[in-house]
Design goal:
This protein is an alpha+beta fold and 187 residues long. It has helices spanning 28-45, 101-105, 107-115, 157-162, 179-182; strands spanning 13-16, 19-22, 51-54, 59-62, 65-67, 71-74, 80-81, 84-86, 91-95, 119-124, 129-136, 139-147, 166-168, 176-178.
Length: 187
């Protein structure tokens, strides 16, 4: 047996609006950012009502929509089943990749809004930034834009100083994450 074939993962796919969408392999920066966020959530949520899940868990939102978020937080234990989450998580994080950015900012954002996901983060590892949306009155409102921003963007010192460098998690009043922890060890 060829050693390269000894372990092969099942192809990963999502179902968006009834269409199968194959998922590409993640880059190192994508994986590190998602892993950092998951570990921060998992550590904070230990012994609390809500639970963090990392990439690989199916979320069944409608008959035509099954997604695999990079990170999510679920507070309703009744929607957790052995083969996935059946209903809206309380918070979903999608880390952008060139191949997923259009869906993450378009169809998935609308799907999460319509499904009742209370908080949605779009994380851009290249820009070291996060767009955070909160569900208010059934619609997503951009809560804020957070960023460390690479030096090569040409931002002024004033713009860099004014950018928000900690992101609060709306599910808990005392949960605020420094962006340096989220973007730690990225290229």
């Amino acid at each position: 047996m060829n050693g390269n074939l000894a372990y092969q993962e099942e192809p990963r796919e999502e179902l968006l609006n009834g269409k199968i969408v194959m998922m590409a392999s993640a880059s190192v920066n994508h994986n590190r950012a998602a892993g950092n966020i998951y570990h921060i959530f998992r550590n904070y949520l230990r012994e609390k009502k809500c639970e963090a899940f990392s990439d690989g868990v199916d979320v069944h939102l409608t008959d035509d929509d099954r997604v695999i978020p990079d990170v999510m937080v679920v507070c309703d234990k009744n929607i957790i089943r052995p083969d996935g989450i059946y209903g809206a998580p309380d918070l979903i994080v999608e880390v952008l990749s060139p191949s997923t950015a259009k869906n993450d900012k378009g169809y998935k954002k609308d799907l999460y809004e319509q499904s009742g996901v209370k908080e949605y983060w779009i994380v851009d590892p290249a820009m070291r930034s996060i767009e955070a949306y909160l569900l208010e009155g059934g619609r997503y409102i951009l809560k804020d834009f957070y960023g460390l921003f690479p030096d090569n963007l040409g931002l002024t010192e004033k713009e860099k100083a004014e950018s928000k460098k900690e992101i609060p998690v709306s599910l808990y009043n005392d949960f605020c994450i420094p962006l340096e922890e989220i973007f730690h060890n990225l290229f």
